[in-house]
Design brief:
By secondary structure, this protein is of the alpha/beta class. Helices cover 22% and strands 20% of the residues. It has one domain: NAD(P)-binding Rossmann-like Domain (Rossmann fold). A six-stranded mixed β-sheet has the order 3-2-1-4-6-5, sandwiched between helices. Helix 1 links the parallel strand 1 and strand 2. The longest helix has 13 residues.
């Protein structure tokens, strides 16, 4: 199955990046270039994720982290990605985990992917 490309205007919008590995770090430059306000959540965060203007939360993902996020990228181990997708579904989306675009609320979007 081929991924479906999505283009979003992220300038000034909060993006949650779940994961602290080099996989997550590879997602960061495009988010910054798009003008997103990025928050990274992971118990361990690699140095490549430490950038000016990027908020680092060194702790496990919590469903409360979704609050206020326009877009979510899950780039963590599979069990964490599944937890992100499950939290999103509980918040009102009828989607499936892994590379699924899921509305957080009208006018917002989310993506779960990474290492699945």
């Amino acid at each position: 199955m081929r991924p479906y490309p999505v283009f979003l205007r992220l300038e000034g919008r909060r993006v949650l990046l779940v994961g602290g590995s080099k996989v997550a770090a590879a997602k960061l430059p495009a988010l910054i270039e798009a003008g997103a306000r990025v928050t990274v959540v992971a118990p361990a965060i690699c140095p490549e994720l430490a950038n000016p203007g990027v908020e680092l939360r060194r702790r496990p993902f919590s469903p409360a982290d979704l609050e206020g996020a326009f877009f979510v990228v899950a780039a963590a181990p599979p069990e964490v990605n599944r937890a992100v997708a499950a939290a999103r579904r509980r918040a009102g989306s009828s989607s499936t985990p892994s590379t699924t675009r899921m509305p957080l609320r009208p006018g917002s979007a989310a993506c779960c992917g990474g290492e699945t």
